[in-house]
Amino acid sequence: MTLKVIAKGFELPDYMESHIESEFAKFDKFQVVFHSRNVFMKLEPGRQFIVEIAVKTSVGDIEASADEKELSDALNAAFARLERQIIKKKEKPLAHRSELNERDKENFLKEEEASAEAAADIVIAENNK
């Protein structure tokens, strides 16, 4: 799980990278494995910050972006959009299986949880090498 932070057109404050890391830690509650995390920040003329987040996860590739006058506002908006997209991708298989009965839904959820745990174990094993 790599984190790449790129700032273009301005100097990134020292605390910002740890803030970004803590924002990604909030996604642990969704049990989604991140394979790569890229955050690109740019200062446009007129003091407009653009933040783009691109991640590769166990539920697919997701991109989110936002532009605001303040860097922290742009980051918060981009992470909020990323969270909504993760929830959407994670819940989508369940929404399209309305004809399944409760037992089948429980089995499907157990299989999803087992595959997420297996992916997490692989990432942990790679990090321990």
TrEMBL record:
Residues 92-113 have a biased composition (Basic and acidic residues). It holds the Pfam family Ribosomal_S30AE. Gene3D superfamilies: Ribosome hibernation promotion factor-like. SUPFAM superfamilies: Ribosome binding protein Y (YfiA homologue). Residues 92-117 are annotated as: Disordered. InterPro entries: RHF-like, RHF/RaiA. This is Ribosome-associated translation inhibitor RaiA.
